[in-house]
Amino acid sequence: MVNTRRDFLYTIILGSGAVFLAPLPGCGPARIDEGEPQVTKVAEPLRPRVGTPQFRVAHDFLRDGKPLPQPTTTVRKDVVVVGGGLSGLTAALVLQTHGIDSIVLESEARLGGAAVSEQIKDVSVPLGSVYFVSRTEEIDMLMKVARIEPVQCPDDAYILADGQIVQDLWSDKTLKDAIRDERDRDGMKRFRDMLSVMDADLPSYPLPASLSQRLQAHDAQRSSELAQQYGSATLNTIINAYSRSSMGAPSTKTNAYCLLNFYQSELGSSFGYSRYSFPGGTSQLTNGVAAALENTRSSALVARVHETPNTVEVDVVELDGTVTRYIAPFAIIAVPKYQLSRLLTGVGVQRLEALKKITYAPYATMQISSRVAIATGKAYDTWDLRVENSYTDVIDPMCIQRGSSAHVVSLYVPLDPAQRTMLQDPDAFARFAATTVERFAASLTEEQRMSITDVHCWGWGHGIVIPSPGSHNGAAQAASAQTPRLRFAGTDSDCAPAIENATEQGARAARDIIAQLQQRSGR
User: Fold this and answer.
1) Which of 29, 62, 187, 419 fits a disulfide with 230 by CB distance 3.0 to 4.6 angstroms?
2) The pTM is what?
3) pLDDT < 70: residue spans in the chain
4) Hey, which residues does 157 pair with through a beta bridge?
């Protein structure tokens, strides 16, 4: 989307008495002022930042139906990749490796999708995606091209209702020490034992074209119903927090299919499950892949995709408002599918009906920097089970990024779809951030609260597809069904928001097109 920068003033007031006042960029990445701000009282405000992905031009053309100008320039390619997130970047890399002349078109000012970071102090801090759990063939390919290796993250920590902070929660020893109620503990053990041995029966991705009766039952069942079978109040709290954070909605609105697949790896290293990231965040992967690609464009909003019998026309709104038309035999659509009803000139009845069954959730991340440590430094991801309907977990990027004296943590804050418009109102977003940071800061010591120097907030309007009950049995498949010249990628092809899904779907789309091109050329 077009980058229209302008400055605003926002105020965040914390219970410590500190007030934060800042000029904030309306679009694009925040920039850090030089110099270390000093903690002060209300009379002497400080400077935080609030930002969101660019949305104004997309709303004009894709939401509100503004007429698209006629194209002034035409460019021809073999394949056009619409969307520069992990799925689109993976697709483009596979195409380039096979000598296919392709281009990536991304509406944001930078590529990476949700796998982007911001420099806060001297620390690269993830704004969206934070880790992955499987070193798949596709992810290993991307890491090789980016010339980076992941680090294994420490096991998650949990702050229990009584304030205990524990790691390796699912081991017998920790459960015995931390969960005093025998019925509660027994339910957690039974859930753990079921999940840890499920392997061959575990619902898997990418989604099959059609589901067996067993998988249909998992898709139809709510995550909350699965958890409640075990009679553990703590388990219910954990699953609801996890569902909100990793699946985009409370456990009453997500399916057991995705929960089972995703949560098995949460059992931790004691059960053979690891998680990985990169110092600086998953943006290190997307940045490396983007740098290796020959043809990418940012700040290029794709506003129209028209399939003809022989080609695909892709119209792009440029920064100056003019339109460039890309023409290619094939296109890969690697943007969220809620856009398709406006983006495609012929969306089709079946796809349109499927799209109505797929929902997306907004979320925010709030990066808090301070003079003294406000995290233990022992866990990359800490789940705070004491709070409800607020932040769910706290990411400590310093845990895997050594060599800095800075202290930064990120709150992961799932939002209800009704709060999406709040992210479009910087003042409302700042007030919401104040409330959320205040709630987090209430559990800190006075020294920690008073040491906070900056609050950086980033809001994602349609950031995560929700694996809702029923979404996996027909809706996802119909929404992503290929046409003669279009292939669809992205995590929402599986209705399951994970890096592994994004890279798999991007690679599959590219390989299918490569096979089509080779067949046409007689190779």
Assistant:
1) 187
2) 0.90
3) 1-49, 523
4) 167, 382
